[in-house]
Task: inverse folding
């Protein structure tokens, strides 16, 4: 299937302009990363605690920031999460220096003090877990099952989990009366929970804690994963084609990764393990398109021996142009859908792929082939000088 007819665009005649533009963008991006705000590394790499909470009403970020100010010397990061009308907030506190510590409880305590002072020791349906509820039920034994503490806890565990499952599905308990909608609660357990429980102004949606030592280890492993993937691509293309093509492909991959990282820094996107996974996916996608072009170059070299390499490369790019647009276009539509409608959880992942597909398609044409051509000319000139000697 061809959506583009026969073309004869002299792509390589624009290589100096294209490479100059790419170098300018990369240098600007690297300067922004090193001398500007830099990369927004997530908890996975810097260590710290990240808590996501949901409020009944639209929260005041300054009020939350003030409540968090006494927890740690590190400045807390408070930002909205997901759609504004959901009233979800992400709170992130970095571990100062190399200090280990989980700030989940201090964060929740500070929020309770600010918003839920009226609970006064009651069981909070919106922040406490199934284990705590099962322990309370085991101690009170509202159904009078008797037996030892462990058997009572096991008996009430199912009903405690039902309460927490309802919270997960609804986001939070608006009031204690919402317990009437929880399926699986016996009348005795329902009545007891209503006497001890309260529904706070916010609900805990998730908490994540990574120590600085683990974060540093994850950061090193992520860097090694990127380096080894690029070296692996160089070795593969070197063996399948020739060294100039391997260098051209890796140059295009460096180009794609650096520009994508620059975009992440510019838009202050968080870099975590899923982001690294997206970058590795981008590396695989980009080199696939480059290999298709180089494979056509190899075929044309066999069919048109002695013809100028620059002309052969131009012809090869034109011959694969339709395939490039079909593959990139269809993939782009899927990724764009994920970016627009996939939700906040995978938004950055989709963002990386969105930028990467556009930049990767460009680099396969205007970076990989020109670099391979330049390296080939250098090697040919060197062999010619050796023969002359």
Result:
């Amino acid at each position: 299937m061809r959506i583009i007819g026969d073309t004869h665009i002299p792509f390589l005649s624009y290589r100096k302009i294209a490479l100059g533009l790419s170098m300018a963008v990369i240098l600007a991006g690297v300067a922004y990363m090193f001398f500007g705000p830099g990369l927004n590394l997530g908890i996975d790499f810097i260590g710290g605690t990240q808590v996501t909470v949901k409020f009944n009403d639209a929260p005041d970020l300054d009020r939350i920031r003030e409540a968090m100010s006494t927890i740690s010397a590190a400045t807390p990061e408070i930002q909205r999460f997901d759609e504004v009308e959901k009233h979800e907030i992400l709170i992130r506190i970095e571990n100062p220096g190399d200090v280990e510590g989980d700030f989940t409880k201090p964060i929740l305590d500070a929020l309770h003090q600010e918003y839920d002072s009226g609970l006064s020791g009651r069981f909070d349906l919106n922040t406490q877990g199934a284990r705590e509820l099962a322990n309370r039920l085991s101690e009170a034994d509202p159904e009078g099952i008797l037996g030892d503490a462990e058997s009572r806890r096991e008996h009430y565990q199912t009903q405690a989990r039902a309460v927490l499952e309802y919270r997960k599905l609804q986001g939070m308990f608006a009031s204690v009366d919402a317990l009437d909608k929880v399926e699986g609660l016996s009348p005795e357990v329902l009545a007891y929970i209503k006497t001890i429980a309260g529904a706070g102004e916010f609900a805990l949606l998730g908490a994540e804690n990574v120590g600085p030592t683990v974060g540093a280890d994850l950061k090193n492993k992520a860097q090694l994963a990127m380096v080894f993937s690029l070296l692996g691509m160089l070795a593969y293309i070197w063996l399948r084609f020739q060294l100039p093509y391997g260098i051209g492909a890796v140059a295009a991959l460096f180009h794609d990764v650096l520009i994508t990282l620059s975009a992440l820094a510019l838009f202050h996107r968080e870099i975590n393990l899923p982001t690294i996974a997206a970058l590795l996916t981008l590396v695989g996608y980009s080199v696939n398109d480059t290999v298709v072009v180089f494979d056509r170059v190899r075929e044309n070299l066999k069919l048109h021996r002695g013809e100028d390499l620059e002309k052969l490369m131009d012809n090869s790019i034109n011959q694969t142009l339709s395939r490039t647009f079909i593959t990139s276009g269809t993939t782009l539509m899927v990724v764009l859908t994920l970016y627009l409608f996939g939700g906040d959880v995978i938004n950055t992942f989709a963002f990386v792929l969105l930028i990467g597909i556009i930049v990767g398609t460009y680099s396969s044409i205007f970076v990989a082939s020109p670099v391979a051509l330049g390296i080939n000319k250098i090697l040919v000139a060197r062999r010619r000088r050796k023969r002359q000697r």
